[in-house]
């Protein structure tokens, strides 16, 4: 939900296909101790993965969260998935922070966008 007094946000620009997306959809638990710090660390850590292109986030008022990570190729996605610190955060998410989640990985074959210009 966007309050018009906030700085406008925009989705990640389209990339030249093919590339990969990891769509992570979550419902969080009430226990969120340490989540913000770990999430910030993961957002910094993933930037070091060669082939990482960017990330979009959305959160509904009802608590459904969606994060979409964009990766140039399957090797970049595999490197992120197998990162030791990321795997530790994943386990903590299952143990503490997530009521449920789904992960969808897809190869993007077409991509385009639109931005209204003043």
From TrEMBL:
<dbReference type="InterPro" id="IPR052936">
    <property type="entry name" value="Jasmonate_Hydroxylase-like"/>
</dbReference>
<feature type="domain" description="ABM">
    <location>
        <begin position="19"/>
        <end position="91"/>
    </location>
</feature>
<keyword id="KW-0503">Monooxygenase</keyword>
<dbReference type="GO" id="GO:0004497">
    <property type="term" value="F:monooxygenase activity"/>
</dbReference>
<dbReference type="InterPro" id="IPR007138">
    <property type="entry name" value="ABM_dom"/>
</dbReference>
<protein>
    <submittedName>
        <fullName>Antibiotic biosynthesis monooxygenase</fullName>
        <ecNumber>1.14.-.-</ecNumber>
    </submittedName>
</protein>
<dbReference type="Pfam" id="PF03992">
    <property type="entry name" value="ABM"/>
</dbReference>
<dbReference type="InterPro" id="IPR011008">
    <property type="entry name" value="Dimeric_a/b-barrel"/>
</dbReference>
<keyword id="KW-0560">Oxidoreductase</keyword>
């Amino acid at each position: 939900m966007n309050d018009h007094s906030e700085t406008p946000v925009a989705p990640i620009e389209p990339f030249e296909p093919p590339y990969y997306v990891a769509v992570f959809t979550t419902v969080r638990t009430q226990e969120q101790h340490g989540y913000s710090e770990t999430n910030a660390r993961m957002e910094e850590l993933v930037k070091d993965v060669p082939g990482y292109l960017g990330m979009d986030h959305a959160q509904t008022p009802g608590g459904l969260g969606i994060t979409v990570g964009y990766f140039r190729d399957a090797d970049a996605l595999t490197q992120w998935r197998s990162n030791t610190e990321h795997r530790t955060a994943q386990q903590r998410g299952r143990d503490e922070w997530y009521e449920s989640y789904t992960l969808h990985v897809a190869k993007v074959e077409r991509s385009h966008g639109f931005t209204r210009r003043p």
